[in-house]
Amino acid sequence: MKYSISCASNIGLFISVISFNSYAAEIADYKFHTAANMLAYTELELSGEPLAESLGLDLDVLDPNEQNQPTEFDYITGIESYEFSEEAMYELNYRSGLGLNYLNGLRHQQRGGSEKALSTYLATLAKAVELPTDQLAKNLNLISLPYRTGTPEFAQPVDSSKVAEEVIQWYGAGESLIEKSSTIPAYVQDYKSLVWVKDKDKQIIEPAAMGALLLKEVMWSQDFLGGMHTAAEDEEVEAISSKMDQSKDYALGVSAVDGMNGLILTELSLEKLQYLQQELGYNGKALGQTITPDYDPEKSPIWFPHAINAVSKSIKGKPGIAQFSILDSSSQLRDNWMLLWPLSEYFAFSDQRFANTAQNPGFAAVFDGAPFAATKPLNRDENKSNDVLANDAFSMASNLSNAVFKNLVSLHFNKQFGTFIDQYDLENTAAKHTKNKKVTAYDAAYSIVALSIFQRAQDALPVGYASASSAASRLHTPQGKLALSLMKQQADFIIQRLQNKQGLIADSAVISKSDGSLSIQGSYSIDTQFAAIRGLSAAFLATKTEVYRQQARKIYLSLEQYYFDPKIGTWAIEGEAHYTPWSVAAISSAMRETILHLKNNSTEAIPALELQQLVNRYSAWFRLVVSGKESQPGLQLAEPIGDTGEHILLTADGISSDDGDSDNDGLKRVTHAGGQNGRASVLANKLILK
What we know:
By secondary structure, this protein is an alpha+beta fold. It has 17 helices and 25 strands.
């Protein structure tokens, strides 16, 4: 046998896959939205290799050149979902230019700000992972702070000239091996021609966009730096000591290339943390309010404004900050939970507390002074009241996650109803909350997710890919205890206040300014249902309260009853579905949670919640909405070459003969994906299915 079979492939209960009738798909908005894209790709990452592995798949049997093997679900999760997620992060961080350039950022300015200084610094990082510097991509276009939106089309013709060839192997009928030559184009090794077109829109800095990209960075950094590798053979080994990399035999990261990406992403993450800590805090009067460990929002609140215009100027040929000005001064719930999640991941990733005896030695080695600074001794003890302000990774993550958590409690939590409200602003403060308070269910549900990661980080439980797992021991911190209480209150509000008789969750509700009553808004979108499942599953895993699991199952069954459209082949409302990256985030994550934690157990027998049926539903949805099928587009705009099975194949006379879709999966590679010069491998902003 060439392949082993995953649990998803060997369930026993047969449920026929929906046979699709004709449908039409149209990309209605090609715009790139940073926050939505990066959240979606984080959820797709978690629904990638981690999901496939949890169902029993040996990842070594996957081959990007063997489509839909060993099953379609295995290929979708282990190859497409995972690789699309990784590549999109590089598109934004390394190539797009969609943000303020790292050369002119806070941290690199301390090194002099020159390109030569950057080359020297990158060489230092490369030495820490034993990567030859000639293997670094040329013209890395690193960004400090991402802009809110952009146009994911290339500003110039992409350099597709051949720099090398490689032989691609895959299996044909039976066990016969097929070999073909393929081109390695210049743009794979040199990113100069992959800069996106510059929009005429304002260059807006948004906390949610910063948080979503920070989340992508820290999730992959943990993946890349969670082990070590041999310096000579570049073979992954378990990190059993944080001092292994100090010998000549071992280096940081699970491989040289992955380790290098992990260190670059870590540096870009630290840049964002430093901006948040000292430049972007707002007290209602001015930006630049430094956030300190003793921050108290009840005395003098400081928050991150929803929209900041970054007036940039060219510094040494790269965009740098000339002036920040506020466009929207409010504190938004979405901005806060989208910051709390990655800040909590970063807290755990860089955790150097004496009490955390279970820290991954691979992580500890990254933050032991080289290549990144160790934390201050006062910030390592159990007494948070003596913490000091510092710019090392753990100090900043601890300080900022503490501040955002306090703001959620003080500025956004309504104690009367036990729910988070969307907005806090000066008008509300000055007028003693005279405005109506809106609750958006999507954000309330995802606040539970962020709080669950915060609680786990504070209590030294695994996060990242292991955020649903248990641990042999845990800390019992006051912050973790409060987070658990908030999760329970928010989950109770969703199921007790927002759920209708059909089991569906309302999109929003308003708390009246006049009498404090709650008014439910009348729409029940697909996105909200899946976000609620995601949030309730997080509440169940954190609190072990079975009612949250049962209520999440109930919502899923309501989705199946009222929204599944057999003609289209996935969820729709009255024959039409509008999908965005926010939809992708909620659906990918909720289906993952349902497959892992909400499916039938040994005493349950609801057909719609059998594992094989869930796997079928997820695969069908992914093909329709993310990758596209049957010549109809999905939200994914383009396919990177290499790890997803796309190649530039050559004929016998050495000429490329394909139409930009060598693997015939309907997704074109970036040079053939439309636009004047091609499109980046990211998600469009809206897809309509009919």
